[in-house]
Each structure stands twice: as structure tokens, then as C-alpha cells.
Amino acid sequence: MAKQELTCDDILKELKAKQYRPIYYLMGEESYYIDLIADYIAEHVLNETEKEFNLTVMYGSDVDVATMINAAKRYPMMSEHQVVIVKEAQSIRNMEELAYYLRKPLHSTILVICHKHGTLDRRKKLAVEIEKAGVLFESKKCKEAQLPAFITSYMKRKGIDMEPKATSMLADFVGADLSRLTGELEKLVITLPAGSKRITPEQIEKNIGISKDYNNFELKSALIEKDVLKANRIIKYFEENPKTNPIQMTLSLLFSFYSNLMLAYYAPDKSENGIAAMLGLKTPWQARDYIAAMHKYSGVKTMKIIGEIRYADAKSKGVENSSQTEGDILRELVFKILH
Questions:
Q1: CATH fold of 6-136, please?
Q2: Is residue 86 within 8 Å of residue 113, measured between CB atoms?
Q3: Per 3-state DSSP, what percentage of the chain is helix, strand, and coil (rounded to 5)?
Q4: What is the DSSP track for 208-238?
């Protein structure tokens, strides 16, 4: 039976229970979870007095494997543990040599290796030794469809509700950069009026700078409803405010939506639950837009729309386009979607 991989929540739960491992190898494309785990270890394993002698932070660009191993082999001073954190570990060459240390790691050392923007080959000896001795964690990119659930969960832990439209506005505006997204969420928490526990679209507009009426969420709604006037008003606003509404963000959202819509046609169960399961959505209510769109667009039309979005993307990058502005490209695309 394959070993079940620990999630970020699993690891944090162990750490909070003071269950420590000799090594935490944190790797992957999503920096947010890597930083979250490493920062928790740095902040909570040692008290302030112990940190002075027993917390070592080094950077992969400045050290080699031997330096890292020598640091890990030191014994703690006046403390049960020492913590060694290696950031930017993807810069370290010959990382495979760490496998020799892991055969007999020092259990008083908590070695945390942060390997961003890449992963170890799990078939190699080093990965096997890490999993035997401690934790090999892969931090994967959050999919666009998972962002609303991530936002809702993050805010619930802080005792705050977000209206669905506010959640979608923020997810569409920021995208899957979780570090930036959580920064914007913290900004919303700080700016909440005293005693308030609910985030509204108006607060998103005021504090994040996204118009509650002219944004990608509202454009998508206009296209689902085939509301020509509303869609063109939004495009005009985008054209007048290109810095806050870049065309690449809009095209990415539209491509994601219509690609998922194409998949929704193949769902054996066309209910909210069935489509949510087909598309990997966290909550059934997220499937409502796809159900509404299936009543407005045929599968053949959806395929054509996906092609038109690809063409618009190429033109926005200068391919076969010598004179059209971003506004012209988006206006033409929306016309082709709606007609």
C-alpha cells in the first residue's frame, strides 16, 4: 500500500502537538505552503531565548551540502532541539549527498529544507531516505477552481464570512498566487469596520480597488446571461482602466470558464453535485454558472469560443495583429461569443 502523503494541515497539526521530525523537505511550485510550514517551525519550536543559539537560517546560494550537514550535526545549546532552515535550497548542487546524513540523522535537529519552483525525483535514493526519516512534502499550485474554497476556508479560520460575489471578485482579480491572495485577505481583515464579521463586494471595491460592477466576475455573468449591453459596458470600462484590468487576466479567466464548460457537457450527472465532482469544484454552488451556461451555449458553440479565445490571446501578443488595441481585441471576442 502506498504511503499516504501528508497535507500542509497534517504537518501543522503534528507541529502544534510538538511532534517533530528530523527533516522536513518542502518542495514544489506553490511557495505559500512552503513558507507557511517553515515559518511556523521557525516561530514556535524554540522560545525566544533558545532561538539565539539554536536557530540557524542559511541560503542555498551561499552554502553547499557539506555546510548544511555540518550544521545539522551540531547539538543544541541549553535546549531540546536546534532548528536549521535552508532557504532557496534548489540552488544547492549535489543534494543527493544529504542521503548519507539521513541514514542516521540527529533527532535533536529539525532540518527544514525549502526547495521552491521544482521537486525531487521521488524514485531517487534521497527522496526515499527523506520519507524514511521525516517529511517529503510537495506544495502544488492551487487550481483556479479551488480558489473560492481556499478563500472561504482562510477567512473562516479568522471567524469572517465572505459573500460569494466578493469571494469570486477577489479570486478572479488576484488569481492563483496564494502569497499575494492571503496578503489581500489580511488587508480586508484589517480594514473591516469594528464589530463586522462579513466581507461584501463594496468592501472589496473600496479596499482592493476592484469595481464591484465592472470586473471579470461581472463580465462572465453577462456572457452567461447573454447580456450584450452589460458586457459592452464592462469592456469599455476595462479599456479605460487597463492597469487594473489587463487583457491577459480576462482571457485566462474566460478560457478557464469555457474549457470547464466543455467538460461539464460530458458529466454523466448534470446536477450541481455531479458537475462539481466532474470539474473538481469544492462546493456545488460553484457549478451553477456552468448549468446556466449550458442552457445558453451548445457544445459546438463552446468549442468555437475556446478557439476564438486562443486567437484573441495570440493577437494580444502581437501575432497577426498590427493595429488592434486590447480593447478592440476584447470587444471583437465578446461579439463572437455572444453571436
A1: Rossmann fold (3.40.50)
A2: yes
A3: 60, 10, 30
A4: H---SSSSHHHHHHHHHHT-HHHHHHHHHHH
Which tens digit of pLDDT belongs to each residue from 57-92? 999 999 999 999 999 999 999 999 999 999 999 999
CATH of the domain spanning 142-206: 1.10.8.60
Nearest CA to 8 among 186, 180, 16?
16
Q: Which CATH class is domain 214-336?
A: mainly alpha
**Hey, what's the torsion of the CAs at 214, 141, 151, 179, to 10 degrees?**
-90
At 211, give phi and psi (nearest 5°).
-70, 135
Report the percentage of the chain scoring pLDDT > 90.
67
The rounded distance, in Å, linking the Cα atoms of 225 and 208 is 27
Tell me the C-alpha distance between 174 and 172, whole Å.
Answer: 6
Where are the domain boundaries for CATH 1.20.272.10 in the chain?
A: 214-336
Main-chain dihedrals φ then ψ at residue 295, nearest 5 degrees: -80, -15
